[in-house]
Amino acid sequence: MPAPLPYTNALVIGAGSWGTALTAVLAERGLKVQFWGRDPALMEEIQTTRRNSRYLPGLVLPPSIHATANAAELKPADLAVFVVPSKAVRETAASMAALPALQSVRVIISCAKGIEMDSGKRLTEILAESFASTPLAVLTGPNHAEEVSQRMATAAVVACEQEDIAREVQGCFTLPWFRTYTSDDVTGVEWAGAMKNPYAIAAGIALGLKLGDNAIAALVTRALAEMVRMGIAMGGRAESFMGLGGVGDLMATCYSEHSRNHRVGRLIGEGMPLQEIMSSTRMVAEGVPNTASLHRAAKTKGVRTPLLDEIYAILYEDKPAKDAMRALLSRDPRAENE
């Protein structure tokens, strides 16, 4: 049985599919959950029907959850979970930092994945600017919201520099079907979570081009090599990329039809223009903006990322996907560990 709860009142910020799924997880664990999203119509629907028909229609939320778009009515919480898209983290954090509901928060958990374009900062670094005195943690791993909403077996990692807080957050995300591990390598798991998204687009492109399983397996393997190089250069540890937040998340994202990034890549490989793909769904494919921010960071740091370079060329320089794949295969031979 899970240990007694270290926290009792949770605030989930962000009403997409992952925020909705995590709201259900925390409620099942026994926390009192407030659920905030910026769209009044959507939050009224969730509060009234207990369903998020826009992003996760199959999940019925328990009646104990309070959903609202009115930040002023939020009550004090001791655990806050940020699940807004990466590009919205800075604005959302700044706008909510002064709310009474956030003044009592004992830990803030970042659940989005990405690196800020202009600053090159990780999401916890951005959150720290608005919550300088609040401990920060990261929840990440191979976690598709669709499967979590169905209570399918799931594992994740909680990263926090303070080991005791990591264990406390772990306790909030421990259920018979939801297992969490802890880590103190916040830098590593954040870079891993951000980097896997562009490579999922590449795996989808390879599928759309019908390049075969051999090519996709090679692509994913070389993607991991690039992730490790980049992560170490940014201050992370190699072993973090071999865990749930690294190779685990990479595998799930590169091979699953639940993955928005994989879907974007597959449609590109099949010949659909990126703009048409992006305008056809409400879901955010983080890999598209992530590719630009990661490409800039790699160039700034001098990290060799040939695969990421080709993904960037496809998304932002209109390079044909077939030409990009051909360029990767025609590179000069080298040792595998280089």
What does this structure look like?
With 338 residues, the protein is of the alpha/beta class. The protein has two domains: 9-184, NAD(P)-binding Rossmann-like Domain (Rossmann fold, 3-Layer(aba) Sandwich); 192-329, Orthogonal Bundle (N-(1-d-carboxylethyl)-l-norvaline Dehydrogenase, domain 2), CATH 1.10.1040. Helix content is 49%, strand content 11%. It has 15 helices and eight strands. The chain has helices at residues 17-29, 40-49, 89-96, 100-103, 123-130, 145-149, 163-172, 186-208, 213-233, 244-255, 260-269, 274-279, 287-301, 306-316, 321-329, and strands spanning 9-13, 32-36, 66-68, 79-82, 107-110, 136-140, 154-159, 178-183. Strands 3-2-1-4-5-6-7-8 form an eight-stranded mixed beta sheet, with helices on both faces. Strand 7, helix 7 (163-172) and strand 8 (178-183) form a beta-alpha-beta unit. Helix 8 crosses helix 13 (287-301). The termini are far apart. The model has no long low-confidence stretch (mean pLDDT 93).
Quick rundown:
With 338 residues, this protein is of the alpha/beta class. 49% of the residues lie in helices and 11% in strands.
Which tags fit this structure?
N-(1-d-carboxylethyl)-l-norvaline Dehydrogenase, domain 2, 2 domains, alpha/beta, Rossmann fold, globular, 338 residues, single chain
CATH topology of the largest domain, what is it called? Rossmann fold
Instruction: Tell me, rounded to a whole number, the average pLDDT.
Output: 93
Q: Strand order, main sheet: write it out.
A: 3-2-1-4-5-6-7-8
Helix content: 40-55%
Number of strands: 8
Q: Which of globular, elongated, flat, extended, rod-shaped describes the shape?
A: globular
Number of helices: 15
| Termini gap | 46 Å
- CATH class of the largest domain, named Alpha Beta
Strand content: 5-15%
The total tally of domains equals: 2
Strand count, sense and barrel status of the largest sheet are: 8 strands, mixed
CATH superfamily of the largest domain: NAD(P)-binding Rossmann-like Domain
Poorly predicted ranges: none
CATH-defined architecture of the largest domain: 3-Layer(aba) Sandwich
SSE ordering: EHEHEEHHEHEHEHEHHHHHHHH
- Alpha carbon gyration radius: 20 Å
Structural class: alpha/beta
